[in-house]
């Protein structure tokens, strides 16, 4: 499939994209560990099948020092030993928050309790917004057929306001 539309080449799309990016920037600047942010964005993107987002988040995580083993095991994190309990709680929230239509209860009380155990209120706020925004970004990418493979790490570095 060929890309359908370049949102950033459109005046309205670029204007909205800039504001959307600024939400992500606020999350990035929060006290939620960057490693957790990277893992959550990668896992949601895998679930949603957004090739461009998987490309971006796996490459950015690798550039930030994430290991190839951990990146490869994100898709099977429940069956892996390389993630901390805090990371596992965040990944569970990412999965349950991404698969809302698949689960009648949404995010389980058990997962929420794990998140509360490992993160403070500011980190939880950032984590909840992160799950929501990465899902929105995935949907944008999938709708317009954005393709993965050509992203170069650091492209978004220094973009603000």
TrEMBL record:
What domain of life does the native source organism fall in? Bacteria
Q: Name one Pfam family in it.
A: CMD
PANTHER family this protein is in?
4-CARBOXYMUCONOLACTONE DECARBOXYLASE FAMILY PROTEIN (AFU_ORTHOLOGUE AFUA_6G11590), BLL7811 PROTEIN
Q: What is this protein called?
A: Carboxymuconolactone decarboxylase family protein
Specify the Carboxymuconolactone decarboxylase-like domain's residue ranges: 16-96
User: Which SUPFAM superfamilies does this one have?
Assistant: AhpD-like
**What is the species listed in this Swiss-Prot or TrEMBL entry?**
Actinomadura nitritigenes
Q: Which InterPro entries match?
A: AhpD-like, AhpD_core, CMD-like
């Amino acid at each position: 499939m060929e890309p359908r539309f370049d949102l950033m080449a459109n005046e309205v799309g670029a204007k909205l994209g800039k504001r959307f990016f600024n939400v992500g920037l606020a999350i990035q600047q929060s006290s939620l560990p960057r490693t957790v942010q990277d893992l959550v964005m990668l896992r949601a993107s895998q679930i949603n099948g957004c090739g461009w987002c998987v490309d971006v988040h796996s490459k950015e995580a690798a550039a930030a020092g994430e290991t190839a083993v951990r990146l490869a095991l994100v898709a099977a994190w429940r069956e892996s030993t390389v993630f901390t309990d805090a990371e596992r709680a965040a990944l569970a929230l990412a999965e349950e928050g991404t698969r809302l239509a698949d689960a009648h209860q949404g995010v389980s009380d058990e997962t929420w309790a794990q998140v509360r155990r490992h993160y403070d209120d500011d980190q939880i706020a950032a984590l909840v917004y992160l799950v929501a925004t990465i899902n929105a970004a995935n949907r944008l990418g999938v709708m317009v057929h954005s393709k993965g493979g050509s992203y170069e790490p650091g492209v978004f570095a220094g973009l603000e306001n």
